[in-house]
Amino acid sequence: MPDPNSAPVLELRGVSKRFGAVQALTEVDLAVHPGEVVALVGDNGAGKSTLVKTIAGVNNPDEGSIVWQGKDVTIRGPHDAQKIGIATVYQDLALADNLDVVGNLFLGSEITSAGILDEISMEGRSRELLETLSIRIPSVRIPVASLSGGQRQTVAIARSLIGDPKVVMLDEPTAALGVEQTAQVLDLVERLRDRGLGVILISHNMVDVMAVADTVAVLRLGRNNGFFDAKRTNQQEIISAITGATDNAVTRRAARTGGEGPGAG
């Protein structure tokens, strides 16, 4: 659980984004604390993907600010996001099927010695990372093409930790997974939280959201439409905010009954 007195590691303040005549985001706020899982939910077209890409540096906000560890930052591209400590695992995973687990974990971040790949060091660090996260893989030298969907997802998440990030964004990590594989991924999300990382979980699955989230942030038509303490709310209330059945009244009611707004724990 996040420390209610801790400062957010990542905060968005009034972020807006336009694509031509289309207003994709309007004055969106979001806060993520160390050791907190924030579920970002909303219907198709609500702005979730745009917001994730803005945090990840793919899009540049037109207005508003991004605050990292208390300081305003400008994220001009994905490299900037990775450099300050934001890692993103997209739904397509971007794994290389022809490479083994070690090759995928260090793809683009290879360890070299005298200009030669240090396979021993990379294999050792791979084993250590997977063991720390309790990820069970038959072998770190098995091609990822041979792994199950759940195992592939856990490898992609583990790869995001190679750069020692402080915030990890997971885009629909349980989509198309079976029950057992979904449980493995959700267990890994909880272990990321236990390591003190801030996690942004984008998901359409309310069962998954309620299972691991500390805070649920609802987007509707590119705007905030509610922040909820996951332990003090229910699926019906969140779905009402997603669909607009109660519209901004949900936001006000959440504030009165314990749903937390941006910047709160």
From TrEMBL:
* Source species, domain of life: Bacteria
Q: Which is one Pfam family of this protein? A: ABC_tran
Keyword ATP-binding attached: yes
Question: Which SMART domains does the protein's record reference?
Answer: AAA
Q: Which residues cross the membrane?
A: none
Give the organism's phylogenetic lineage. Answer: Bacteria, Bacillati, Actinomycetota, Actinomycetes, Catenulisporales
**Which key words tag this protein in UniProt?**
ATP-binding, Nucleotide-binding
Name a GO molecular-function annotation. Answer: ATP binding
Name it: ATP-binding cassette domain-containing protein
Q: Which organism is it from?
A: Catenulispora yoronensis
Which part of the chain is the ABC transporter domain? 10-246
